[in-house]
Write a structure and sequence with these properties.
The complex is a heterodimer of chains A (198) and B (389). A seven-stranded antiparallel β-sheet of chain A has the order 4-5-6-10-9-8-7. Chain A has a three-stranded antiparallel β-sheet with strand order 2-3-11. In chain A, strand 2 and strand 3 form a beta hairpin. With 198 residues, chain A is an alpha+beta fold. Helix content of chain A is 22%, strand content 41%. Chain A contains four helices and eleven strands. Chain B has 389 residues and is mainly beta. Chain B is built from one helix and 24 strands. In chain B, a hairpin with a 6-residue loop joins strand 4 and strand 5. The longest helix of chain B has 25 residues. About 3% of the residues of chain B have low confidence. Classes of the chains: A alpha+beta (198), B mainly beta (389). At the A-B interface, strand 1, strand 4, strand 5, strand 6 and helix 3 of A face strand 23 and strand 24 of B.
Chain lengths: 198, 389
C-alpha cells in the first residue's frame, strides 16, 4: 500500500511536469519572461523563420504553404510573404506609395516606399530627404529580382524604428526603399529573393 | 662764420626734409590706371562718299579715336565732321594748297553703357575725291579729360610724308602719345603704307583710297618711353614723293584714368529648391586687376547683420574684366535671398548692386515611416517589443 501510494504520487508528479513542459515549449513564442505588462507583442530580434527552406522559398512559381503572394499592378512587382502578415497600401500623392507588411504577433514587418525618380543614381539630396538621420553604414551592392536590378543595402537609423536595414534600388523611373529592423535574421532575405518585376 | 655755415646747412637740410614730408601728405601721389590698346579699324570710299567704320568690341568708358582724310584737288578747305553723334573734334587740318589737296579730321568719343558698333565719317570733296578713315580704341583713359593737353597739328606741301608735331605733356606719367598723319597724292596705286617713327610701330595702321585725287591716312601710338615734350618723328609714305603732294598731321596725348576700385555688377541668379547659382561681373578693373572677388549673400535685404555670409575667391587671381560665379547649397525652400558681387584690387573694393532671388517651393514627396505606426518600439534583452502609443 505504501509503495502504491508512492508510485502514484511519482507518476502524478511526472505527468504534471510533462504537462508543464509541454505548455512551456508550445508557448515559446509568447514572449520573454518578465515581459512588461503593457507590451503588445515581442519577438526575438534575430529569430529565424524555421518553417520554410530559404532556397525553396526563392524559386517556386506559387507561394509555398504558409506564404501568399503580394502583387502590385501599379508599379509592376510581386513578392511572397507570410500569410500571417497583413499588407496595407498608402497613396502618398505625387505618384508615390508606401506598402506596409506587418506581423504583429511576431513583430516582423517591412515597408516599401516607392517614389517617382528620374535620375539614374541616388543623389545625396534624395537620401537625406528620406533618411534625415543621414546614417548610412556598411553599404553593399546586391541585386533584385530575376532581372538582376542593381540595389544597395545598408544599415541606417530611424527615429521610430531604431536601427534599420535598408534596400534601395531604381527601376523603371521609380526609387524603391525597402526598410525593416536591423538584425532580423534570415526571414527578410528569402522574402526579397522572391521579388519579381511583372 | 664756420658756426654760421654749419647751422645754415643744418637748417637747410631740415627744411628740405620737412618740405618733402609735407609734400607727401598734402600732395599725395595719385595712383593711375594703366592705358591699354583695345583694337583698331579702317575703311575707305571714293567719290567723296561717307565712310563707315566697324568699331572693335568695346566696354563702357573705352575711348575711340577716329581720323579721316579727304584727298582732293579743288583747293577747298572742307569742314570735316563725324556723321555719328557724340564725337569731339580735336583737329581739322587743311594742308596748304598744292596740285593735290588733303584735309585731316581727328575726333574722339568715350563709350557709354551701350558702346557704338559703328562710326561714320562725313565724306566730302565731290566725285573725284578719295576718302580714307582709321580708328583706334583705348581703355583706361581719363573719361573726363582724355586729352592731357590740347592736341598739336601741322601741315605742309611739297611732300607727302607727315611729320606729326611735338607735344608738351601736362604730366607725362602714364601718358600715351597718338600720332595721326594724312597724305594727299596721285599715286594711282594702292593706298601705300607708312613707316612709323621709332616707338610708334606697334599696332600702327593706315588706309587709303585712289580716285582722281588719292589720299592715305595713318595712326600710331607710343605707350612707353614718352618724352616730355615728345617729338614723334616722320611717318614715311611708301610711294614716290613729289613736290605736288601734301600732308597734314596731329599729335595727341592720352591722359590715364585715376586708379579706382573695380567696377562690379551683380547679375541674375538662378535658383532651385535648396540651391542657387550667383553671378557677378568685373566690368572695369579701375587700373589694377582684382586679387579677390566673391559675393555677400543672406536673407536680410541690406546684407547687414549676422545672417550674411561672404564668399571669397582668390584662385586664379589676378582677375581682370569678366564674369564669375558661386554655387550655394542647403538653402531653405521658398525663401527670398539677397546678394551682391564684389571685387577688391589695390585701390579698394567695388560692389555690385544688391539683388535678390527666391528658391523654389519644395514639392518633393518624402518617405514617412508607417511600419508599426501607432506603436512605440523598444529593444528589451535583444527583443523588439511593441507598446501601444
Amino acid at each position: 500500500m505504501r509503495i502504491t501510494n508512492f508510485m502514484g504520487v511519482l507518476v502524478g508528479l511526472l505527468a504534471a511536469g510533462g504537462l508543464l513542459a509541454f505548455v512551456f515549449l508550445n508557448n515559446y513564442d509568447s514572449g520573454p519572461e518578465n515581459l512588461p505588462a503593457d507590451a503588445i507583442s515581442a519577438a526575438n530580434l534575430s529569430e529565424d523563420d524555421k518553417t520554410v527552406n530559404p532556397e525553396e522559398l526563392a524559386t517556386p512559381a506559387d507561394p509555398p504553404p504558409g506564404y501568399v503572394k503580394y502583387e502590385n499592378k501599379k508599379y509592376g512587382f510581386s513578392y511572397y510573404h507570410s500569410s500571417q502578415a497583413a499588407v496595407t497600401e498608402y497613396d502618398e500623392g505625387g505618384g508615390a506609395m508606401t506598402i506596409v507588411q506587418e506581423n504583429l504577433q511576431k513583430v516582423r514587418g517591412l515597408q516599401i516606399f516607392i517614389v517617382p525618380y528620374a535620375e539614374k543614381t541616388i543623389s545625396e539630396e534624395r537620401f537625406k530627404a528620406d533618411i534625415p538621420s543621414g546614417v548610412r553604414n556598411n553599404a553593399e551592392k546586391t541585386f533584385i529580382g530575376k532581372r538582376g536590378v542593381e540595389a544597395v543595402t545598408f544599415n541606417s537609423y530611424d527615429q521610430f524604428l531604431g536601427e534599420t536595414r535598408e534596400v534601395w534600388f531604381i527601376y523603371n523611373g521609380h526609387l524603391y526603399e525597402v526598410t525593416t529592423f536591423r538584425g532580423v535574421g534570415d526571414w527578410f532575405t528569402p522574402i526579397m529573393q522572391t521579388w519579381r518585376f511583372l | 662764420m664756420k658756426m654760421f655755415f654749419k647751422k645754415f646747412t643744418s637748417n637747410l637740410l631740415h627744411g628740405f626734409l620737412i618740405f618733402f614730408i609735407v609734400s607727401l601728405v598734402i600732395f599725395p601721389q595719385v595712383a593711375q590706371a594703366a592705358i591699354s590698346f583695345v583694337g583698331s579699324c579702317e575703311n575707305s570710299a571714293i567719290s567723296g562718299a561717307d565712310v563707315t567704320l566697324t568699331l572693335p568690341s568695346m566696354l563702357q568708358d573705352d575711348i575711340v579715336i577716329v581720323a579721316y582724310t579727304v584727298g582732293d584737288n579743288d583747293s577747298v578747305d572742307f569742314d570735316m565732321a563725324m556723321i555719328t553723334a557724340g564725337y569731339t573734334e580735336v583737329a581739322d587740318v587743311h594742308a596748304p594748297t598744292d596740285t593735290q589737296d588733303v584735309e585731316l579730321g581727328v575726333y574722339w568719343k568715350v563709350m557709354g553703357a551701350l558702346p557704338d558698333a559703328e562710326g561714320v565719317v562725313d565724306g566730302l570733296g565731290g566725285t573725284d575725291a578719295a576718302v580714307a578713315a582709321v580708328c583706334m580704341v583705348f581703355r583706361g583713359v581719363d573719361t573726363t579729360t582724355p586729352m592731357d593737353v590740347t592736341p598739336t597739328t601741322d601741315a605742309l606741301n611739297n611732300t607727302m610724308h607727315p611729320d606729326p608735331p611735338s607735344i608738351d605733356h601736362n604730366n607725362p606719367t602714364g601718358v600715351w602719345t597718338v600720332i595721326v598723319g594724312a597724305s594727299g597724292h596721285s599715286l594711282n596705286t594702292a593706298a601705300g603704307t607708312y613707316t612709323f617713327p621709332t616707338g610708334y610701330t606697334t599696332n600702327a595702321l593706315e588706309d587709303g583710297e585712289i580716285d582722281t585725287s588719292d589720299a592715305t591716312v595713318g595712326m600710331g601710338y607710343r605707350s612707353s618711353g614718352v618724352s616730355d615734350p615728345e617729338n614723334p618723328g616722320v611717318m614715311t609714305h611708301s610711294g614716290t614723293d613729289s613736290v605736288n603732294y601734301v600732308w597734314a598731321a596731329a599729335t595727341l596725348a592720352l591722359r590715364p584714368a585715376a586708379a579706382s576700385a573695380p567696377t562690379v555688377t551683380s547679375n541674375t541668379a538662378s535658383a532651385g529648391v535648396s540651391s542657387a547659382s550667383l553671378a557677378g561681373e568685373i566690368t572695369a578693373t579701375g587700373g589694377a586687376d582684382a586679387t579677390v572677388r566673391g559675393f555677400a549673400w543672406g536673407t536680410v535685404s541690406t546684407l547687414s547683420g549676422g545672417d550674411t555670409s561672404t564668399t571669397s575667391d582668390t584662385v586664379g587671381q589676378p582677375f581682370g574684366v569678366g564674369t564669375f560665379g558661386q554655387n550655394l547649397i542647403n538653402l531653405l525652400a521658398n525663401n527670398v535671398y539677397y546678394f551682391r558681387a564684389y571685387a577688391t584690387n589695390a585701390n579698394g573694393t567695388g560692389y555690385g548692386s544688391i539683388t535678390s532671388f527666391t528658391t523654389s517651393t519644395d514639392t518633393t514627396v518624402r518617405r514617412m515611416m508607417r511600419l508599426f505606426e501607432g506603436f512605440v518600439i523598444k529593444l528589451f534583452s535583444g527583443r523588439i517589443i511593441l507598446f501601444q502609443r
